[in-house]
Design goal:
By secondary structure, the chain is of the alpha/beta class. It is 36% helix and 13% strand. A 4-stranded parallel sheet has the order 1-2-3-4, with helices on both faces.
Length: 134
């Protein structure tokens, strides 16, 4: 059962967490989950960046530390990534990984469990097969 969806959010050049929150609320609404702004703190438990890790991507440490902070097993996580090193990091951590071709072509994301061309396709993946995996 999936208990956490981990986004590789940028948040570096601009502060766009509110956009990710709104998009997440809309996706969850479509599959029957209502998420209010107040609920947001339960699901968006904080930002992580490269600082504070001994190893960065492609090492699994960033995702393992994030799962530990969320109090979930790596196998209960879905990672949404747009880079080969991020996909390697997520897969090495034992997480299901969705590659998004917003930065790299599909051929560079081939190690992901699933590959989508845009964020809209993620909703269909979650509804069709990922959410039902053991």
């Amino acid at each position: 059962m999936i208990k956490a969806i981990i986004f590789d959010m940028n948040g570096i050049i601009i502060n766009d967490e509110h956009i990710h929150e709104l998009a997440t609320r809309n996706v969850l609404k479509e599959i029957g989950y209502a998420l209010s702004h107040q609920d947001n703190s339960q699901f968006f438990v904080g930002k992580r960046d490269a600082e504070g890790f001994q190893e960065g991507k492609p090492d699994p440490e960033p995702y393992l530390v994030t799962a530990k902070k969320l109090k979930v097993k790596p196998s209960e996580c879905v990672v949404i990534e747009d880079s080969p090193s991020g996909i390697q990091s997520a897969k090495s951590a034992g997480m299901y990984c969705i590659g998004v071709t917003t930065t790299y072509d599909k051929k560079f994301l081939s190690h992901a469990d699933s590959i989508v061309d845009n964020f809209g396709e993620i909703n269909n993946l979650i509804r069709s097969n990922i959410i039902n995996r053991p």
